[in-house]
Amino acid sequence: MTLPKVGSFQFYVESYVCDFTEKATLTVICNFILDAASIHAQQRGFGYEQISKAKAAWVLSRLSIEMYEYPCHNQHLTVETWVENVSRFFTQRCFRFISPNEKVLGYARTIWAAIDIATRRPIDIPAWRPDLLEYLYAEKECPIDKMNKIPEVENEEPTIGYTVRYSDMDINKHMNSVKYIEHIINVFDLNMFKEKFIQKLEIVYLAEGNFGDKLKLYKREISPDEYLIDTKKGKESICRSRIIWK
Questions:
Q1: Low-confidence residues of the chain, pLDDT below 50?
Q2: Are residues 111 and 163 in the same domain?
Q3: Fewer CB in 10 Å around end: N or C, the chain?
């Protein structure tokens, strides 16, 4: 039986995943994104368990998320996901977040690469898994602008630094993509979260963070509501992000 192209998954916002505003944090929403993507792919035959047998892995390359409102504690959240595009080395997956009263709370767009675990080189996706093309659904709207280039942050003093440890690692033995975001939002003062919320996050992952890496985060204010954050290992940027507040 062919499954529908759009997957719809239910999540519940427990109180322990909320901050002092009694709403789910950005990192929780990002974890829901990864969960929905994983389940959707697994059900259709190209998830972690299936592709790991071929010594391959999906790696998140870019994420853009825009929230109009965050779900509250003790609230259900529906996350829809679908594959919007497949190119030679990347696949684009979209998300929509819906409240119990059918209100759209936000959207996200992600770009993934498939890599050979041994060589860490990208895989030609259509040649490797032509069946994935059966689940393309470009017709469904995802009203997030294509991500612009995020420039390097230079000539700034580091805001914070940290060393990659066990709790930062994922199943592929490199730094978990949501952990980057967790450290990024920690560069902001608590008063920012009292007065505003993160409306939009764009992040591009440039290199793997490995156990023991010493990383520093550099922040540049573009305007009172827009910031660039550059996570570096030495002089090398391993991820860059843009955060817009509202």
A1: none
A2: no
A3: N
Model pLDDT for residues 122-140, shown as the tens digit of each residue: 999 999 999 888 899 989 9
Per-residue pLDDT of 4-32, as tens digits, reads: 999 999 999 999 999 999 999 999 999 99
CATH number at residue 233: 3.10.129.10
In terms of pTM, does the model score above 0.90? Answer: yes
Q: Is residue 190 part of a domain?
A: yes
**Among candidate residues 59, 27, 65, the one with its CA nearest the CA of residue 184:** 27
Contact yes or no for 209/168 (Cβ under 8 A)? yes
The number of distinct structural domains making up the chain is 2
Q: Residue 99 is part of which domain span? A: 7-135
Residue 207, helix vs strand vs coil: coil
List, in sequence order, every residue forming a beta bridge with 181; answer none if it has no partner: none
**Beta sheet of 56-67, edge-to-edge order:** 7-13, 75-86, 90-98, 104-116, 56-67, 198-205, 236-245, 226-233, 214-223, 158-163
Question: Contact, 196 vs 245, CB < 8 A?
Answer: yes
The pair of three-digit structure tokens given for residue 95, joined into one six-digit string: 């998300």
